[in-house]
Design a protein that fits this description.
- The chain is about 65% helix and about 5% strand.
- By secondary structure, it is mostly helical.
- The chain has a domain of about 30 residues.
- Keywords: Coiled coil, Membrane, Transmembrane, Transmembrane helix.
Length: about 130
């Protein structure tokens, strides 16, 4: 053997072989987790319960919406009646507060119109240019 080959052999021997490194390091391995198997019946039961719950919730919501729609119809009819009453009262108020109506009501109460207007001086309290109505 040549000197170069001998030097290579000694260098290889000086370095630990990969096999010896594996023997020195602890062996690590991934252990698959063991999940308990659920039976198909449990899965089907859970899915069935979920489907029944969704149907029940949708029925409940639609019932609430129908009930609210009926209540809204009743409130709208009541609103219409109240608006008609409000309109009638407004017309009655306008009629009673007209100048002709106020004049007739004043005459019924015994009031007379004064054609001789006067004034009151607020600083002195004097009444000027006026006389009581007769």
């Amino acid at each position: 053997m040549s000197a170069v080959a001998t030097a290579r052999n000694t260098n290889l021997r000086a370095q630990p072989s990969p096999r010896s490194q594996r023997e020195q390091a602890p062996q690590l391995a991934v252990i698959p987790t063991v999940r308990p198997r659920t039976s198909g019946a449990i899965t089907v039961a859970v899915m069935l319960i979920g489907a029944i719950a969704m149907v029940a919730i949708s029925l409940f919501i639609s019932t609430l919406l129908a009930h609210n729609a009926l209540g809204m119809g009743e409130l709208q009819s009541e609103l219409k009646v109240l608006q008609e009453q409000n309109q009638a009262y407004t017309e009655q108020l306008n009629e009673l507060s007209s100048s002709v109506s106020l004049s007739q009501r004043a005459q019924e109460l015994g009031m007379v119109a004064n054609t001789n207007f006067g004034y009151v001086n607020l600083e002195t309290g004097e009444i000027g240019n006026g006389s009581p109505a007769r």
